[in-house]
Amino acid sequence: MRGPLTVIGSLEDGLRGDYSLLALKSALDFVAALTSASVLGWGVLLSAGTILLVQGSLTLGAGFVEPFVTDAMISAATATGGVLIVGLGLLELKRVRVGNMLPALLFAPLLVAAAPLWPF
Questions:
Q1: DSSP secondary-structure letter at 67?
Q2: Going by fewer Cβ within 10 Å, which terminus of the chain is more open, N or C?
Q3: pTM across the whole model
Q4: Could you report how far apart the first and last alpha carbons of the chain are, in Å?
């Protein structure tokens, strides 16, 4: 469940400056880290650097592509992320690896960008 939340939260922060999803994810990660640290020890603390590296690079990367991204493209990526989080993560409609679906977050905005080229 937290895979799409990482990507969508970082994109929201980098493109719109809205860090509310990342704050929610950090609260979820804090609870998971507390429970893991009780079993695994202090090594769990080292994983925080990996989380900062991944989320930080995604947020900075989103900031670099912001001039090229329209509101419709952001909405398409957010809607796709919502389907991944709710439909595949929370409802467990089908047991799939959510990481395999993450390319959809890039494909949806590309379809929106290419939509004016289709003769309808």
A1: G
A2: C
A3: 0.66
A4: 37
Q: Running DSSP on this structure, what letter comes out for residue 118?
A: S
Residue 9 contacts residue 27 (beta carbons within 8 Å)? no
Amino acid 16 reads R
Q: Spell out the per-residue pLDDT of the chain, length 120, in tens.
A: 456 678 778 888 888 888 888 888 888 888 888 888 888 877 777 777 777 788 888 889 888 888 888 888 888 888 887 787 776 666 666 666 767 777 888 898 899 989 888 876
Give the Cα separation of 89 and 116 in Å (integer): 32
Cβ-proximal residues to 106 (8 Å cutoff; 6+ apart), any chain: 77
